[in-house]
Amino acid sequence: LLRQAPNPPADAVPEGATDADNVEVRRHGEAPAFAFAPKDHVDLMTARGWLDIDRAGRLGGSRSYILKGDAVLLEQAILRFGLELITARGFTPMSVPVLVKEAALVGTAYFPGAEEQTYKIENPTFEDQAAWLVGTSEVSVTAYRAGEILDVAELPLRYAGISPCFRREAGTYGKDTRGLYRVHQFNKVEQVVVDVADADRSRAHLEDLVRNAEDVLRALEVPYRVVAVCAGDMGRGQVYKYDLEAWMPSRKGFGETHSASMFFDFQARRLDLRYRDKEGKVRVCHTLNNTVVATPRVLIAVLENHQQADGSIRIPQALRPYLGGREAFP
Fold first, then answer.
1. Residue 169 Ramachandran class (φ > 0 left, ψ -120 to 50 alpha, else beta)
2. What's the pLDDT score for residue 124?
3. Fewest CB within 10 angstroms: 114, 150, 161, 282, which?
4. pTM assigned to the model
5. Surface-to-core class of residue 34, CB atoms within 10 Å of its CB (0-12 exposed, 13-18 middle, 19+ buried)
6. Measuring CA to CA, which residue among 159, 144, 179 is closest to residue 251?
7. With contact defined as beta carbons under 8 Å apart, do 244 and 230 qualify?
8. Is 182 exposed, middle or buried (0-12, 13-18, 19+ CB in 10 A)?
């Protein structure tokens, strides 16, 4: 029962029950005003031979997809750009396990509660323990130093985890069935911070994490907004949370692409993640995380916002070095 008790939200968290009650904080950019009938990402990609959903469905079931050709190069360019941006800002890149023991999911506060959304491996590799596929590298990265007492001189730890992610999307039957918005497998670069137990420092880190994500969306030249998530839409462990939502023309609105979370010591207590302060006293750390960039959702926004009247797709300037200097896809 104690594992299910939530973290008290900060006083500044908006009241509300669902994402409809989230409060817009700011937005950047204007939705494109097309002088032609725009296509959605499925039509844009299918016409170029970049996307195969039918055959992917035969291989992996519903919500599966296969990217081909330049779509793969574009996806990797987006991920690489995000990884290099965050690494240049002092985050250590990490390639981490996506198959983890249950303790890592309990420690990061996904369990109990998210079992239905998480893939369980029926033939576990961890002796008699269950094995699970993570829905975000946050699980592996945050749990990386679990059970340790860190030296305060090490802090803050700034990590950037890159991994595939897996989510069952249970309970979403019939919702967002077309295209790549809601899928079972995707790729993500995640930023994680572990620092001392100081509420003001944690809030400063949260704003920095959001700024990093905003800089990615700005570089991709995608309109977006930042919303403060209401109490009813937050997870069990979060003290304060922002979502970033990119403009997606096919949805005629914004779609969530990033979630930035501040936990204070909620995860660290579960993970026994501590540090020894300058006076020699052992204290519990604070943790935070946010997406740097995730595909294919960001891929949707890039393709749909940058389609041109002549049928081409403009490549944002920031991605051109990763795509041989090309300026557009014909």
1. left
2. 63
3. 282
4. 0.95
5. middle
6. 179
7. no
8. middle
Neighbours of 268 (CB within 10 A): 25
**Helix or strand (DSSP H, E) at 244:** strand 240-248
Which residues are the active-site residues? 167, 182, 256, 259, 297
Encode 274-288: b = buried (16+ Cβ within 10 Å), e = exposed: bbeeeeeeebbbbbb
Of the pLDDT bands very low, low, confident and very high (cuts 50, 70, 90), residue 174 is confident
Q: Is the Cα dihedral 78, 84, 87, 92 positive or negative? A: positive
Phi, psi (rounded to 5 degrees) for 259: -135, 120
Residue 202: how many CB atoms within 10 A of its CB?
22
pLDDT tens sequence across 4-29: 999 999 999 999 999 999 999 999 99
d(CA 187, CA 212): 18
Local structure of residue 17 (DSSP, 8 states): S
Residue 257's SS3 state is strand
Residue 261 burial by CB count (10 A; 0-12/13-18/19+): exposed, middle or buried? buried
Contact 31, 223 (CB under 8 A): yes
Q: What is the DSSP string of 48-108?
A: TT-EEHHHHHHHH-TT--EE-THHHHHHHHHHHHHHHHHHHTTPEEEE--SEEEHHHHHHT
Return the amino acid letter for 315. Answer: I
> What's the confidence (pLDDT) of residue 172?
74
pLDDT in tens, 96-154: 999 999 999 999 999 999 999 999 987 766 667 789 999 999 999 999 999 999 999 99
